Fold this protein.
Amino acid sequence: MNDAIVTRSLVKLYRGGRALDSFSLSVPTGSTMGLVGRNGAGKTTWMMAVAGFVLPDSGEISILGLGPFDADKHAGRFAILPQDSELPLEARPGELLARYGRLQGLTSAVADREADSLLAAFNLSAHANKPMRALSHGMRKKVMVAQAFIGSPDVVLLDEPLSGLDPEEANRMRAFIRARRRKETIVISSHNLDDIEKLCTHVAFIGSGRLERVDTLAALTSGAGRLVVTLRRRPDDLAALETLVAGVRVSWREDTCELTVEFDPATAPEEVNARLLPMLFSCGVVSVSSGMTLEQAYLAR
Amino acid sequence: MSFRRVWQAGLFELFGAIRTRRAVVVLVLYLASSLLCMNGAVTVLGKMESQLAEVLHLQTAEDGRSGVISKTLWRSDQFQRMVRHVVGDSLVYEDIRGKHPAELLYAWFTFLFVPLLTVLIAANRVADDIHSGAVRYMLTRVARFEWSLGKYIGTAFLLAAGLAVGALAAWCVAAFRLSGADIPELLPSMLGWSAKAWVLSLAWLGLALGISHVAKTGAKATALGVSALVALSAASTSLTLFGDRFAVLARLFPSAVNDALWRASFAPVVSASLWLLFLGLLYLTAGYAVFARRDAR
C-alpha cells in the first residue's frame, strides 16, 4: 500500500454551491502533505470528509486501505485537529488527553504516559491541571494539536495547526511536527506557505473545490524551465526579450521588481542567461535565481 | 459497535459533567426540589392532622410533630375508599395501601417532576457538543452511535445520583418533621421509589437526547424537549379518554406505563421498566438516525 489516504471524485454540495467538485487526492504513506488554497477552496471540507464529519454526496474515500473512517478499523490509527472546534472548557489538559487516549483504546497507564509526554513536548506540563478556560488561546491550540498525536496514529490531519501561536511557540510546534514526520503520515492545511514549505514533502494546490496541482515540494519549487531575475526597474520592452530565445515567455511583477522568465525545461538555463542578461544590465540586475518559493509556485500555478 | 468504547464515552460524559459542575447543579436541583416538595407535603399533612385532631378531639404527638394521626387516617376504611376511587386501578391500590403517606407523597412528586428535570438536564447535551465542535474530537475515536449511547449512559448515571440524593433529602425532612417509629424504614422505601423514577427517566432521557441530535443549538434543543414533554403528556392523557381503542398507540408514551411502576409485585414493574428502557432507546435511535445522515459541523 503506497497511499495512506485515497480520495476519488469527491463531491460535496452545499447550498452555496460545490465545496468539493470531483476532488481526487492521494496522500503517499509517510509523506507530509500541505494543502494550499484560498479561503473556501475546499481544504477543510476535504479534511472533514476524510474524517467522516462531513458526508460527501458522492465519491470514494479510503484511509490506510481500509475504506472510509470506521471506528472499528481506524480508532487510534487516524486523528485530526479540526478547525474552529472548542475542547471542553472546564476540562484539564492532562485528564483530557488521557481520556482521549483511553477512548481510542489505550490502557490507562499508557494513556497517562502519552498525555504526560505530549504535554512536556508542548511545554504545557505546568498547565496540565488548569482548566482549558484558564489557558491562553495559544496554549489551547497546543492542547488541540497534542490530542491529535496521542497513541501515535498512522495518519494525522492538521487544519491550521500554527495559527494563533507566537513565533517561539510556532517554531517549537514546527520542530515537533518535523520530528513526527517519519512516524505519521501528516496532512497540513495552512495559509502560511512558509510553514508549508518548511514542513511538507508534498504540496497540493486546491481551488474552487478542485485539485489544481499536486507534486513533491522539490518538483514544485525547482527551477527547471524558469528563472527569476530581480531588477532595479522594469525593462522597457518585454516583448523584445521574448525574441531572444525561442519559446521564452517573460512576465513582470511590479511589487517585487521580479522578471520571471519561463522556457522549455530542455533548454539549459546558462544559454538563456547568456542571451538575456546582457539585455538586462541597463535595468540593474540585483539577483538571478533558478528556484522559486512555494508562494511563487502557487501564484504562478 | 464496541461496548468498551460506549462505556468509555459514558465515562467521558460523566467526567465532563463533574468538571463542568453540571453534576453539582443536577444534585442541587434534586436536593432542593426534594426538600421543598417533602417539606411542603409534610406541612400540608400537619395542617390536615391539626384540623382532624380538632374535629375529632384527638391528641397529637407529644413532640408536636405530625404523622401519627395522618397514618391512622390513612388506614381508616373511609379514607381508603376515597383513595381507591382516586387511584382508579385496583391492583395499584392494593399494592400501595398500608404504605406510609410520606413515602407515597415522595413517590408522587418524584414521578411528577422527574420527566421535566430529565429533559431540562439532558436536552442540550448533544446539540451543544455539535455546535461547539467538541464532538469532532470524539468522532475519530468512537463511532457516532457509540458516542450517542455513551451520552445516554453517562447522563443516566448522573440522574441516578440525583435521584438518590433526592430520596435522602426527602427522608431527612420526614425524619425531622414526622413522628413515628417507622421513619427509619422509609429510607429504603424512598430509595426504591427513586429507583423506579430513574427507570421512568430513562424514557424521557432518550426523548431529550433524541431531540438534541436534531436541534442546531442547546437552547433550541431544550425548548423543543420541553415542548415535546408537554405534547406527549397531553397526547397520552387525551388517548385515555378513548378507552382501549388507542391502547397500543398510548403505550408509545412513557406516561402510559406510569401506573405499572406503582405496583409492588415484580413482574409488572420489570415489564414496565423494560418497556420504558425500550422507549428511551427508540427515541434516542430516532434522533441518532437524523444525526447519522447529517454533517457534524
